[in-house]
Amino acid sequence: MKKGYIEFIKELKSNIIQSRYLAAKLINKEHLLLYFNIGKMLAERVVAEKWGSGVLESIAEDLQKQLPGLRGFSATNLKYMRQFYEAYREIGQTVSGLIGGEGFWLISFSHHLLLITKCKSLKERAFYIENAASELWSFRTLEHHVRANLFQHRGKLTNNFSKTLPENLKLNALDMFKDEYLFDFVSLPEDDERVLEGKLIADIKTMIMSLGKGFSFLGNQYRLEVEGEEFFVDLLFFNRHLQCLVAFELKRGKFQPAYAGQLNFYLEILDEKVRLVHENPSIGIILCKEKKNTVVEFAVRSIDKAMGVATYRTTKEMPGEMKGIFPDTDALVRLIEDSNKDQSVPEKTTVEKG
User: Fold this and answer.
1) Domains assigned to the chain
2) Residue range 128-168, pLDDT digits in tens
3) DSSP string of 40-88?
4) For the chain: N or C, fewer Cβ within 10 A?
5) pLDDT in tens, 317-336
6) Kind and range of the H or E run holding 245
């Protein structure tokens, strides 16, 4: 009787959670459709009626008079709705089938505003929409990946995976890593790998978010021993999707070929002494401030353990070559914060910062 009762409660709980999830999906979709249609009405009528620049303020005020207590329809939010419509008006209500699939309706209005503002192409937006929906990225997580330009960097790691990994792992491994990592939560007065390591460990949650999906932290300065001699891996992780150990070595300055030999040695020991029988071969990533891909290719060509070389950034400023490509983040944040001082968009579709 007791066992049956417990199972019954579990079944009820599962049904309630599933129902709430489906309801939330439907509510979010209805909100997005509403904002799209309002944006369409605004765009068409403002042009047709030749209304002036202050018309959105007037509309917001009149809506408040007609619907006292209405939230989420300030002049600023109406402007965002018009931007939302104009970003996707050419594909209209078939938008989900063309750029984001079901994921288009699963992310919030805030997410969409960020992508509309920051991404110049539908292909880039579709990439972030798909990942944000499937991996349940918060606004801040999405913001980080856009700022880190994940769209350009994922899958571009210079590596030797094609000759060192089993066939079923090659593509997955390449997709798991980037050729540049943004540690924008770290500010360093100088390039010191030990200081960098300490700051990364101090905020390991953000560090893991920066690395990508499926990483579990095992330790820093991970101790390895061979015939009484000690060796230390800077950062050791386990990746659930790849089912393997991942060793990160932090190096200040430019990549040097000798780094590949050192990491290869560590990977040999990890596979021999730490890796479990059912796990895949270990992978190593060298993180440095600079690299020349041709030098890296020569350095890892004859290495028999899987490894790649990526760069990292620690400042909150975009690199010089990226300035002008993306609009200023602070400007977007100020607009969103200003719009939420008095009003906000309904739950699940807020346009607040995070």
Assistant:
1) 2-148+328-339 (no CATH), 152-317 (3.40.1350.10)
2) 999 999 888 999 999 999 998 999 998 889 999 999 998 88
3) HHHHHHHHHHT--TTHHHHHHHHHHHHSTT--S--HHHHHHHHHHHHHH
4) N
5) 444 444 444 444 444 445 44
6) strand 244-254
